[in-house]
TrEMBL record, chain A:
This is Electron transfer flavoprotein subunit beta. SUPFAM superfamilies: Adenine nucleotide alpha hydrolases-like. Residues 23-212 form the Electron transfer flavoprotein alpha/beta-subunit N-terminal domain. It comes from the Bacteria. Keywords: Electron transport, Transport. InterPro entries: ETF_a/b_N, ETF_b, ETF_beta_N, Rossmann-like_a/b/a_fold. Transmembrane segments: none annotated. Belongs to the ETF beta-subunit/FixA family.
Amino acid sequence: MKILVCISHVPDTTSKINFTNGDSEFDTAGVQYVINPNDEFGLTRAIWFQEQQGANVTVVNVGGPDTEPTLRKALAIGANEAIRVNANPTDGFFVAKQLAEVIKNGGYDLVIAGKESLDYNGGMVPGMIAGILGSNFLNSCTSLTVDGNNVKAVREIDGGKETVSTTLPLIIGGQKGLVEEKDLRIPNMRGIMTARTKALTILEPVDAAVNTKAVKFEKPAPKSAVKLVSADNLDELINLLHNEAKVI
Amino acid sequence: MSILIYAESAEGKFKKVAFELASYAKKVAESLGTTVTALTVNISDVSELGKYGVDKILKVNNDKLAGFTAKAYADVIKQAAEKEGTKVVLLSSTTDSIYLSSLVAVSLEAGFASNVVGLPVSTSPFQVKRNAFSNKAFNITQIDTDVKVLGLAKNSYGIFESAGSAAEEDFNPTIGDNDFGVKVESVEKVSGKVSIADADIVVSGGRGLKGPENWGLIEDLAAVLGAATACSKPVSDLGWRPHSEHVGQTGKPVATNLYIAVGISGAIQHIAGINSSKVKVVINNDPEAPFFKVADYGVVGDAFEIIPQLTEKLKAFKAQHS
């Protein structure tokens, strides 16, 4: 089985979010980048398939040279090879088109992308890849097993979960549950050394429409200070929630 | 070229998000000088939608669509959009609608903006404000395609009634066998409880509850408020509560009217998951807990003393105000 894991290179969750250039660009100064958490669950599940079922795992990212340390980290965790599509990932459709091209040319059976990235939170790329390729698609996937061509999976739904069956080739939008957080892999020294010798292929982007663009960023208005209510005066809390906030 | 909304339903009834989407669509339609068409699937009585500004309802009744199948539903929405010649397709941000939106956008060759939090900033060029960076910022996104798909963030607009009624029309889209590549084998829903997705109020517990045996405190408070229950990441990691209740960056996002956090210190990842909630109440015995910095109201004290009292007082309040 050939697996492609789509990796977003995103600011660490504790990063301060600031903008530059007239609030038109994200300020990268002092920001640590990591593998997008939803993608990390998918990567670890892919490595499980590699170890248990002999799958070959490729990781891919659409981005500039600055994303290569993130791809190297994925290689150190255990991916067999990496691909970087050399383009600025500005629009979900543009990114999906690049990834669809990599999938078509690479003949992947299973494509695992995180259900959403923690920077632009678009949540659109996995579905768009599936739409472009006409493949089976499963979003919010929390469990995945593959037997030959047959797939059993669990998907989160509002207020519960559903079990589904489908076949390869398949695109999934994955999340926590594909593996548990305690099972996420950390690169060890051997992995880091081996990663240096693994192939990182750079591809130039194909022509694709750019349907949307981020024109400006804004930060939320500063919040007023918390109103503290004494533990002996809970009637006041109820009064505030009813008369001031009007939420009960 | 009316605006098309997908009015989501479950078990034969519209979800509340359908009414919020209709209210939002009405306002967008006014600014574009057009009307609102709603698409419904397997709902017999659709009249309620008319109260929220919908002008026309396309009713699809098809046994093949009895269970949710994203590809088939996306195909139906595409055909409805083409039939109506619509330029703007609106979906909500439930798990199912998020699943659908990108498939619909690709099939209509439409630019797609998700997590939209307000009316368009401008309609020419078409620009909308979206949540980004896990609710730590907003992004004004411009959509340059002829057809546009928007995903409206939950609880970001509100529900508003309008005068008027909607015309109803049966709609029979073509549904092919290749729409069913993913088959639903079984569905497990937590019954008898309000789900986080449907809740206006969420009561959430953290490690301060000390153990799963104390969860009754959270459930009792939630019950009196008609709220859903949730938890912090350590609580789901410890196995006290299922992952489906974990709120935060890698858990569920919560955009409710009221979020009550009990015994949760407020890790940045947790706060990112609840930032879109309108009013936040924090109850914690540590006055230095970071959660107080983002809370609207706070009580410093022992949850084991405060919560039972608060629950009793709310019961009395509800009895008076029902």
